[in-house]
Amino acid sequence: KAGVTQTPRYLIKTRGQQVTLSCSPISGHRSVSWYQQTPGQGLQFLFEYFSETQRNKGNFPGRFSGRQFSNSRSEMNVSTLELGDSALYLCASSSHRDSEQEAFFGQGTRLTVV
Amino acid sequence: SQQGEEDPQALSIQEGENATMNCSYKTSINNLQWYRQNSGRGLVHLILIRSNEREKHSGRLRVTLDTSKKSSSLLITASRAADTASYFCATAKLGVTGGGNKLTFGTGTQLKVEL
Fold this sequence. Notes:
The complex is a heterodimer. By secondary structure, chain A is mainly beta. Chain A is built from no helices and 11 strands. In chain A, the strands form 2 sheets. In chain A, strands 2, 4, 5, 6, 9, 10 and 11 form a 7-stranded mixed sheet that branches. In chain A, strands 1-3-8-7 form a 4-stranded antiparallel sheet, with no helix packed on it. In chain A, a hairpin with a 5-residue loop joins strand 7 (64-68) and strand 8. Chain B has strands at residues 5-7, 10-14, 19-24, 29-37, 43-50, 55-58, 61-66, 71-76, 85-93, 103-105, 109-114. In chain B, the strands form 2 sheets. In chain B, strands 2, 4, 5, 9, 10 and 11 form a 6-stranded mixed sheet that branches. A 5-stranded antiparallel sheet of chain B has the order 1-3-8-7-6, with no helix packed on it. In chain B, strand 6 (55-58) and strand 7 (61-66) form a beta hairpin. The termini of chain B are far apart. Chains A and B meet through strand 4, strand 5, strand 9 and strand 10 of A and strand 4, strand 5, strand 9 and strand 10 of B.
């Protein structure tokens, strides 16, 4: 079974631009969550989707958005990039709807904003 | 904001020794999970312990959970150089049945196992 796939792996963007990151979950997993990891703030929850519906959202500004498609693939978008958005963005998929089982993480997308 | 605090922040041991990491959290939980991360890559799930469990084993890993103290510990026995990584605890909050998957991570412990 293929794992969680995140694309691209690395990205360099300029302040003010926007970026879209993609996540393909494990086949059959309907829950996809996104996390931001920075040295200063650690791992922080961004949002979670289940069957195309956003069920949870973390404490991030509206510049951060996401969506999930009918095949469970998910994208997250960050508009008007700021230097502080430089981070490792991790996607996780789960077979269960309620954190009852482990989450499977992708390798992440490392975003650098210059 | 991070719910969990981990202790120690960094740990350096010799191969063959045991490594113990501690995690404290703030709210009532459904379960607590431990993850490993190698060099800023993806997280790998190690073990999940439910709130009604006190101890769980998996290979060289032993996890304890004390819900009265809101704390957990991860013990890695007979450490190997390949265990060098960052270790994170993550909690799933109680009361989110039907409310989705959301993990709150601790600050992490950086473990270095030297030959």
